[in-house]
Design a protein that fits this description.
Blueprint: E1 18-22, H1 32-48, E2 53-56, H2 70-78, E3 85-92, H3 98-111, E4 116-121, H4 128-135, H5 140-145, H6 147-159, H7 178-181, E5 194-198, H8 201-210, E6 214-216, H9 225-235, E7 247-255, H10 259-277, H11 287-292, H12 297-307, E8 311-313, H13 315-329, E9 333-337, H14 343-356
Parallel strand pairs: 1-2, 1-9, 2-3, 3-4, 4-5, 5-6, 6-7, 7-8, 7-9
Length: 362
């Protein structure tokens, strides 16, 4: 794979490449079909505006998040885009057999050659009971502990290079490199670059040790961002994939023409998080519902803490906030997630941010 498939190019006055993290959020009064149509529109819009990559995150058993099957969604987006990189942000590897993921992303690579990323996480992307239902027989704690071994197995399947004598030596992920070595084979040996995702130090150290690109979830673990990035850079060992570290961070950001409207929108998203964290997951509420909600003192404290890490306001305010975050973290790429009740608000936010940085016109 080429290094330029990992390292993006900044456009306009953006300090680093800008990308998209889509949770395929479903607002009250809307359907999953509405949310997926927004994702198609958003992928096409951000592609036309010069955003570098578009990732979808795996979540389960959350009514307000319709991204339980990233590979299915990415296949749909591949049919509606031409240039933007598409990937998982991420696939939660302990939930799946490595061979299945190799097959899914080999298929995506065949659909969209040279523009698919495979981002991997070790968290379940859900609660413990749902994780157990997904994994069936594997204890949850053991699945997380086995992540390095699962990762190594997945990469072997992607590269089709199990050594002689290995029990999987004659098993091949198809589509994949084996087709290039079969009689008459013309299949490219190219495969999606692997990224490690994390919200703490474990994946940061592992990504550095393996010389892989790293994505940190600043949008929900802001206090760990700088320590994790430092650990990644300190642990980094050059590899066939990268000669120097490359780290992006996920950033919650929402721009509107009016500062007050931005506050209304992020309050609704924060109420959604309150309900999720207290075992009451649901659809993303409207701003009107959030304004009328009687927050307890503990809930209000959570909302204030949560929204302190959401860059929101007018386009100029969001640009300034993103610039400050880049300076504090030294991130090589900013992956923006704009969560709001309305798909139209989310779409407009990415356009306003693109305008603020002078990204290419649609």
């Amino acid at each position: 794979m080429a290094v330029d498939e990992i390292r993006g190019t900044a456009h306009g006055t953006a300090p680093v490449p800008l990308s998209v993290l889509d949770l395929v959020t479903v607002g009250a009064g809307h359907t999953a079909t509405d949310a997926l149509r927004t994702s198609v529109a958003l992928s096409k819009t951000t592609e036309s505006r010069g955003y570098h990559r578009y990732w979808v995150a795996e979540h389960h058993s959350m009514p307000g998040v319709a991204s339980s099957s990233p590979a299915v969604i990415l296949a749909h987006l591949a049919a509606h885009t031409d240039r933007i990189r598409l990937g998982s942000g991420g696939v939660m590897l302990p939930n799946h057999a490595p061979l299945v993921i190799a097959e899914q992303f080999g298929t995506l690579e065949a659909m969209a050659p040279g523009r698919v990323d495979l981002g991997l996480g070790r968290a379940p992307g859900t609660d413990g009971a749902t994780a157990a239902a997904l994994r069936r027989t594997d204890p949850i704690d053991r699945s997380a502990d086995d992540f390095p071994q699962q990762l190594a197995e997945l990469i072997r399947f992607l590269d089709d290079d199990f050594p002689d004598g290995h029990p999987y030596r004659r098993i091949h992920a198809v589509p994949g490199p084996v087709q290039a070595t079969s009689p008459g084979g013309v299949q490219s040996r190219h495969r999606p670059p692997v990224w490690l995702l994390g919200s703490s130090g474990f994946s940061a150290r592992l990504a550095g040790t393996l010389g892989l690109p790293f994505a940190f979830a600043h949008h929900f673990s802001a206090q760990n961002t700088v320590p994790a990035l430092d650990l990644y850079r300190e642990s980094f060992r050059p590899s066939a994939v990268l000669d120097t570290p490359y780290a992006l961070i996920g950033v919650a950001a929402l721009a509107t023409e009016d500062e007050r409207e931005a506050r209304r929108q992020v309050l609704a998203a924060a109420l959604n998080m309150v309900r999720l964290r207290t075992g009451r997951p649901g659809l993303v509420p409207t701003p009107e519902e959030a304004e009328a909600y009687a927050f307890s003192s503990m809930e209000r404290e959570f909302v204030e803490s949560w929204n302190a890490n959401v860059v929101h306001g007018t386009p100029d305010e969001v640009r300034s906030g993103l610039d400050d975050l880049h300076k504090r973290t030294g991130a090589d790429e900013l992956m923006i997630t704009s969560n709001a009740h309305s798909g139209a608000v989310r779409l407009r936010s990415y356009e306003l941010i693109a305008d603020a940085y002078g990204l290419p016109a649609a």
